[in-house]
Amino acid sequence: MAESKSKIQSVREWVVDNKLRTVGCLWLSGIVGSIAYNWSQPGMKTSVRIIHARLHAQALTLASLVGAAAVEYWDNRGAPKAERYPEFLHANPLSRKD
């Protein structure tokens, strides 16, 4: 019988398959969390709160992009060279016979 995947393995596979969606979700949650945190701080102007939220979200986005690059590198580290590139890069558009 096949063993069932652990929760961590399932999440990891989803992240590998949906890298951009993961980065977007992290960015959105970073904006929402930062705005919620900044709104709880008294004595700040609204424009400063929004700027701080944007800066926090940018930092989180960069961190998640680095994480996605690390996952991509880790997955392709042991793969043969032909499997490291997407399939559409191997296709020769001049050899099509339509």
From TrEMBL:
Entry's Gene Ontology BP terms: mitochondrial respiratory chain complex IV assembly
Keyword Transmembrane: yes
Domain HIG1 stretches: 1-83
A GO-annotated cellular component: mitochondrion
A Pfam entry, by short name: HIG_1_N
Record key words, sorted: Membrane, Transmembrane, Transmembrane helix
Residue stretches in coiled coil: none
Compartments, record wording: Mitochondrion
Family matches, as InterPro entries: Hypoxia_induced_domain, Rcf2
PANTHER family according to UniProt: F18C1.18 PROTEIN-RELATED, RESPIRATORY SUPERCOMPLEX FACTOR 2, MITOCHONDRIAL
Name the UniProt record assigns to this protein: HIG1 domain-containing protein
Species this protein is from: Tripterygium wilfordii
Lineage, top ranks: Eukaryota, Viridiplantae, Streptophyta, Embryophyta, Tracheophyta
